[in-house]
Design a protein that fits this description.
35% helix; eight-stranded mixed beta sheet; alpha+beta; single chain; globular
Length: 161
């Protein structure tokens, strides 16, 4: 089941976010930069703000009552941005990411969004392969943002994607 997040989801969201980030940052960044107390606190504040912010959407994917996936998006500088997209590592390859992505896509279509942007950590080959399979391509104007690749998705009209 995919639904909109509430404040009651915050602890589970932060836990999932921290676990997922560890899988791709480990070996690339010092642990305190992705799982340290200060970073987890910053993450908590960010998620709390996203859940409550007008114009932002946070979706939760659940399986057997447990949170197994999260996605967050909002318009920034006139363009829809997928700012967070994580699936619990214990639930990879179960179709949760695909279902969550399709829910995002359906919402963007309902809103009339035609173009979406995201940034993915360059060494995160698993995520890059997932996004590529979903139709995301390199942003031709701004392909990099530091150690992240910038991807774009042309959102097809409803019924075509």
């Amino acid at each position: 089941m995919i639904r909109t997040a509430t404040a009651a989801d915050l602890d589970a969201i932060v836990t999932l976010h921290t676990e997922a980030r560890a899988t791709y940052y480990r070996g690339h960044l010092p642990e305190e930069e992705y799982a340290g107390e200060a970073e987890v606190g910053r993450s908590r504040d960010g998620w709390a703000g996203a859940i409550d912010r007008e114009g932002a959407t946070v979706l939760c994917a659940e399986s057997d009552g447990a949170l197994v996936g999260i996605a967050a998006y909002s318009v920034r500088d006139g363009l829809m941005n997928l700012t967070q997209f994580h699936v619990s590592p214990a639930h990879w390859r179960e179709g949760i990411g695909s279902a969550l992505h399709l829910a995002c896509l359906a919402d963007w279509q309902r809103q009339g969004v035609t173009d979406v942007r995201l940034e993915v950590f360059a060494p995160n080959t698993r995520a890059r392969a997932f996004y590529s399979a979903c139709g995301w391509t390199s942003d031709p104007d701004n392909p990099r943002a530091g150690d992240h690749l910038v991807l774009r998705l042309a959102v097809p009209p409803a019924g075509q994607g």
